[in-house]
Write a structure and sequence with these properties.
Elements lengths: L4 E4 L1 H8 L1 H21 L6 E3 L7 H8 L10 E5 L5 H4 L2 H17 L4 E10 L7 H18 L3 E6 L2 H11 L7 E3 L6 H9 L3 E4 L9 H9 L5 E3 L21 H12 L3 H16 L1
Parallel strand pairs: 1-2, 2-3, 3-4, 4-5, 5-6, 6-7, 7-8
Length: about 280
């Protein structure tokens, strides 16, 4: 079964498994999409994520929809991760990102979301002030374009929440907290701001009881699942490179946690992802 994966770094996946293997994976998604449409089920969606202000054109070159109806399931996001290089000049990174999104639009490529961007106080590759500037700028860009914002938040729940709250309620630009790494209390706080919560393979890891409790508590209409591939491979393959195919094991555990069938959860996540990303 092919599942919706709301967060994957497909260029990095290609580096791990090779271009031909990625092409086979995309062909599987195209086939699953066609089958779901025939059967009247929610169709799986695959969202490719950006992390650099200038990576969009290269990713389009790798993933541009072609044969087998890839356009029906493939979506592209564009964003700037808080790396040392990107934080050296937050304004410059934001200007480059805006130019890249505009250039893609002129060439007929629709960007479906802004991200991933956010705060990372674990790696801490730049000051909190620089990270806040880069993150707030991406929230503003998403709002101006009427696009969802995909948020990276590690060891920074309070400041992440404060910056989202400062950006204001934006019904046309929902916020997704990806690879959720907190507990039920933080989930409630983010949900109160209108955010969506996406769980990745770390949901399956030993010591992730807080995330599992949060997974049980998120309402159906705010719930997503992802791989964050090639990272966060679910158990029992933790530490190995992942692909969107590995998300199946996260679905299995999430369905158990939420007391639903895997098939029903797949319908829910696909429906939510298409609502968010078109």
């Amino acid at each position: 079964m092919i599942f919706t994966d709301s967060h994957a770094h497909l260029a990095s996946v290609a580096e791990e498994i090779g271009a031909e293997a990625l092409d086979a994976l995309l062909a599987d998604y195209a086939e699953a999409d066609a089958a779901a449409e025939r059967d009247g089920r929610s169709r799986p969606l695959l969202l490719d994520i950006g992390t650099e202000p200038d990576d969009l054109s290269a990713r389009i070159g790798l993933l541009r929809p072609g044969a087998m109806g890839r356009a029906a399931y493939l979506r592209l996001a564009a964003g700037v991760w808080p790396s040392a290089e990107n934080l050296a000049s937050p304004l410059g990174s934001l200007e480059a990102l805006g130019s890249a999104v505009e250039a893609a639009s002129r060439s007929g490529i629709r960007v479906a979301a802004i991200g991933e961007g956010g705060l990372d106080y674990h790696h801490m590759e730049g000051s909190k002030e620089a990270q806040a500037e880069l993150f707030a700028g991406q929230l503003a860009l998403a709002s101006s374009l009427g696009l969802p914002a995909i948020v990276h938040s590690r060891d920074s729940a309070v400041d992440t929440r404060a910056l989202i709250e400062a950006a204001g309620a934006r019904p046309s630009s929902p916020v997704i907290i990806h690879c959720f790494g907190y507990g039920s209390e933080e989930a409630r706080d983010f949900l109160a701001l209108g955010c969506w919560i996406s769980f990745a393979g770390n949901l399956t890891y030993k010591g992730s009881d807080a995330q599992r409790a949060a997974c049980a508590s998120v309402p159906e209409d705010r719930f997503l699942l992802e791989t964050d591939s090639p990272y966060m491979n679910p158990m029992p393959r933790r530490g190995k490179s992942s692909t969107p195919r590995d998300v199946e094991r996260t679905y299995a555990l999430a369905a158990e946690i939420r007391s639903v069938t895997v098939e029903d959860l797949a319908e829910t996540v696909s429906r939510n992802a298409r609502l968010l990303f078109g």
